[in-house]
C-alpha cells in the first residue's frame, strides 16, 4: 500500500476517535438536564434552552472536526 493511502485512512481513524469528545459532551449535557429536572421540575424550560445551546456548540465542534478531516486528507 502506498504511503498516501495509509495517511488518508489515518485521517478518518483520527476523526473517529475525535467523535468521542462530542458524544460524551452531549451525554453529559442531557444527563445534567434530566438530573436538574428531577430535582427542580419548575426550572425545566430554562434548563432545556441552555441545554440546546450547549448541544449546538458541541455538535458544531464535531462538524468542524469532520471538515478538517476531509480538508487535511
UniProtKB/TrEMBL annotation:
Span of domain V-ATPase proteolipid subunit C-like: 13-72
Localization, UniProt: Cell membrane; Membrane
Chief place of localization: membrane
Site feature: Reversibly protonated during proton transport: 59
GO cellular component term, pick one: proton-transporting two-sector ATPase complex, proton-transporting domain
Keyword Ribonucleoprotein: no
Membrane topology: Multi-pass membrane protein
A Pfam short name: ATP-synt_C
Molecular-function GO term, any one: lipid binding
Family according to the record: Belongs to the ATPase C chain family.
Biological function: Key component of the F(0) channel; it plays a direct role in translocation across the membrane. A homomeric c-ring of between 10-14 subunits forms the central stalk rotor element with the F(1) delta and epsilon subunits.
Name of the protein in question: ATP synthase subunit c
Organism this protein belongs to: Raineyella fluvialis
Name of the gene this protein is made from: atpE
Amino acid at each position: 500500500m502506498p504511503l498516501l493511502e495509509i495517511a488518508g485512512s489515518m485521517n478518518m481513524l483520527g476523526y473517529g476517535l475525535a467523535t468521542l469528545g462530542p458524544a460524551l459532551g452531549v451525554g453529559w449535557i442531557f444527563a445534567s438536564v434530566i438530573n436538574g429536572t428531577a430535582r427542580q421540575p419548575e426550572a425545566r424550560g430554562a434548563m432545556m434552552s441552555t441545554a440546546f445551546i450547549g448541544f449546538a456548540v458541541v455538535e458544531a465542534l464535531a462538524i468542524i472536526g469532520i471538515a478538517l478531516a476531509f480538508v487535511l486528507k
